[in-house]
DUF1540 domain-containing protein
Amino acid sequence: MSRVMRCMCEECHYNNKHECHADSIEVRSSGDNKVETSAGTCCHTFRSRKDAK
């Protein structure tokens, strides 16, 4: 399995010093489901730090 090398979402519970520590991630298209660039994707594994407490 590939490792997430860098995560810039500082609000995510799984982000520790810009490394993702989730067991696995799920990436989905965002918006109209037609993806042409990385801007059209989102990490569905995201969990808010404030909700994790």
Observations:
- The helical segments are 49-52.
- Residues 15-52 form one domain.
- The radius of gyration is 12 Å.
- The chain has one helix and four strands.
